[in-house]
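re: ur question from the group chat, yeah i did fold both. here u go
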Amino acid sequence: MTTTKTARELAETYFTAWEAGDFETVRGLLAEDVDFVGALGTASGIEEALGGLRGLGQVLEKIDVKARVADGDEVITWFELCTTVAPPAPTANWMHVENGRIARIRVTFDPRGLLAGFEKKS
């Protein structure tokens, strides 16, 4: 018997897998046509979304979740994005789930620290 994860469980698994660099698990959570909009760019479809997560994953140290709120198919996760190139960035992530998969992701944070860190790194 298979059980469908709740939106909250999907979000928890997504962040745990991303932090661990487990992109195959992340792939299994995303809808094929996932739509991502964030402070550093946009992605349409699973391959673009995974590409963006992998890119940021190269400097990701930790995702320090402060709070998670779920309401039906909507989940907001408030966390500090900790990287090797910038001070922790307070971040809000909203996800919408359809048919048991993450279909839409919106992320907002002040990207100036990360952008400066990337600039120094290159």
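okk and heres the other one u asked abt
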Amino acid sequence: MSSPCDPRNAPAGDVSAALMMIDSRLKAVYDGRTQADPEQQALVDQFIASLGPREVDDVLDGTCTLIFLFMKWLRMAYEDHDRDVIEYVVPNLVATMRMMPKSVRPEAIPTMAGLVVAAGTGLSPNLWRKQYGDWTKDEMTPLEATAFLLAEHINRLTDDHDFATRMITQALSGPDED
């Protein structure tokens, strides 16, 4: 029986834009900054301000697609070592988000944990979330933080600061290279 949260039923969204935002945050952290480069941040802010409602939804869907792809990679990596991805990723994610009270309100943490569990079990994060209503403005930063933390987790596992971004970029460019 097919689930209404099957990833085949989910829009991919604007994965490139979502990845650009996550990559910008990763680069800032790896460069030892607490904030993104002011010039880079200005470009990201300008891009976000230029989006209409449909484009915002596309970036939101793209962020959920990133979460799904990151969790898919993590699930395969942990299964290769006979470990459960949920057991190793979710507690770390929740603990980290609890240390980010300015960016992630406590009430958003269960939703983000649920989103990651959904993705970790092969469900579409955006379709899983949709069954509980529309996204709220207060969930936007925690959603970005979730994608960022998963990408950073992958980069730590691979000991490569660009691995998560490169993996998605290669997946996006793969069909064009055939």
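fwiw on the second one: The CA atoms of residues 114 and 129 lie 8 Å apart. The radius of gyration is 16 Å. idk if thats what u expected
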